[in-house]
Write a structure and sequence with these properties.
This protein has 21 helices and no strands. The protein is an all-alpha fold. The chain has a single domain, classed as Growth Hormone, Chain: A, CATH 1.20.1250.20. α6 runs antiparallel to α19 and α14 runs parallel beside α16. It is globular and about 65 Å long.
């Protein structure tokens, strides 16, 4: 999320005094007196009006939808291994630590690319970055489809992660240039909600396709889906409204790369955004990217269909929370940290109850509650990007968003590795799988980054107030 350059267009030579964009958003979203449901101006009518007749116009929603199509494809690519973990173990003959390396490397590349991608978006524009991202994702997934050894498959996931890293920040910049700043929190949450649909495709369609069409056909088809998406973005996407001021991209007027990164990092709001993203995103991300299906199938004795249903529940819950949080943050910026702290507390409580259950076999109702609660993690993490947008000027919005967006993926990488190492350490000698007790102890690892992230949020919140 970023301030609309068409409205702000600050000059590098004489910067205007900066005011958090959320002040405008909050002022524009002060609720009035109660109104009759469905009446003009009522909350229900305002939601319909914002979705179908936004101030940005139909052209804005069209441009945004093209970017979101790329993001949905990226989520499908990113989460495709989440339902194929057991198949990958059999195909490549690897254990939990090696299996986690797939997702760790993919996430590591994604996180490491966030700042370079933010700089690219600021300098060459989101359309070109989106096209490059589609090309890299398709190439990486196609190589993964036909890999039969661990090393080539690992390299292909790194290429995929590089392409995936180029999508979300680019879509945020397209939205920021087409929509007024006060609308951005809602549009960004809607972006996350629609992108979550890619996860639903993975858990419902891909899981079934793997057992009917096979490994190469399934992953090859996903790779080739990028061809029409690339063509549509190339021909139809316009990254800004006609006549909108173009962000400064001339060499002589650019800030040096190091200075631009330091300027973004020096803002406490950027660092707070990164830690909010880190702490809220990683529990659901690590679960959905890799360890969810093995935990439910091996650890809890569910069928693959039952485990897929649980993962689908997590995705659907995320869609609902995305709409809810988008409306709340659009109305008042003061709701951001209360939402984040509530999500962290409830997530920690549900995982503690699940992992403390005797013999590592919690009842189904508790697993359902856990999935519903973890659905709030992704939408809450987008609050971190809202902080990056609010406390940085337009010319370094991509850089600041990249820094904030690293947080959750760093947390996911740490958690994926920690769980994988602990599972191998706790495995019964001579066993091909892992016991419920091993999963119970290994998943306790995620409470450590949860505590670390919460402490950093509290520390930076005080600094931001000062």
């Amino acid at each position: 999320m970023s301030v609309d350059p068409a409205r702000t267009a600050p000059s590098l030579s004489a910067p205007a005094p900066r005011r958090p964009a959320d002040a405008d958003a909050a002022a524009a979203a002060v609720p009035g007196p109660p109104e009759a449901p469905g009446a003009p101006g009522s909350p229900a009518a305002r939601i319909v009006d914002e979705v179908f007749h936004p101030p940005g116009g139909r052209a804005a929603w069209f441009a945004w939808s093209l970017g979101v199509a790329v993001y949905v494809l990226a989520v499908v690519h990113r989460t495709s291994l989440g339902v194929a973990g057991l198949d990958a173990s059999a195909r490549f003959g690897i254990g939990a630590s090696a299996l986690s390396t797939f997702s760790i490397l993919q996430v590591l590349v994604y996180a490491g690319m966030q700042v370079p991608v933010g700089l690219l978006v600021d300098r060459i524009g989101p359309r070109r970055v989106l096209l490059l991202g589609v090309a890299l994702m398709s190439a990486g997934q196609l190589a993964f489809a036909f890999s039969t050894a661990f090393a080539p498959a690992l390299a292909s996931r790194a290429v995929l992660g590089c392409g995936d890293a180029m999508t979300f920040i680019s879509v945020l910049r397209v939205a920021a240039r087409w929509f007024p700043a006060a609308r951005n929190p809602f549009v960004v949450q809607l972006t996350g909600l629609i992108g979550t649909g890619g996860n639903l495709v993975t858990t419902v369609v891909l899981a079934q396709a793997l057992h009917t069409a096979g490994w190469s056909a399934t992953f090859g088809t996903i790779a080739l889906t990028g061809v029409p998406v690339f063509a549509v973005v190339l021909v139809l996407l316009k990254e800004a409204p006609p006549g909108a001021p173009t962000p400064v991209r001339h060499e002589s007027l650019r800030l040096p790369v190091g200075q631009q990164i330091r300027a973004a990092w020096s803002e406490p709001g950027t660092r707070l955004g990164m830690w909010v993203h880190f702490t809220t995103a990683f529990p659901a991300s690590a679960f959905g990217l890799l360890w969810g299906l093995p935990y439910l199938v091996e650890g809890q004795g569910m069928s693959r269909a039952g485990a897929g249903g649980m993962l689908s529940l997590l995705v659907l819950s995320g869609m609902v929370f995305g709409l809810l949080f988008g409306r709340m943050v659009s109305r008042t910026a003061a709701s951001r940290l209360p939402i984040a702290f509530t999500v962290l507390a409830v997530t920690a409580l549900c995982w503690t109850a699940t992992l403390a259950w005797p013999h590592g076999h919690p009842p189904t109702w508790l697993l359902v509650v856990l999935m519903l609660v973890m659905g709030s993690n992704g939408p809450a993490s987008l609050i971190g990007l809202d902080y990056a947008r609010a406390y940085n000027p337009a010319e370094r919005m991509g850089t600041a968003s990249g820094i904030a967006n690293m947080g959750g993926f760093i947390g996911s990488m740490i958690t994926l590795l920690g769980i994988g190492v602990l599972l191998d350490a706790l495995a019964d000698p001579g066993s091909d799988g892992y016991s419920a007790h091993a999963y119970q102890l290994a998943f306790c690892f995620q409470l450590l980054p949860l505590l670390l992230g919460t402490a950093m949020i509290l520390r930076l919140r005080r600094k931001l107030v000062r």
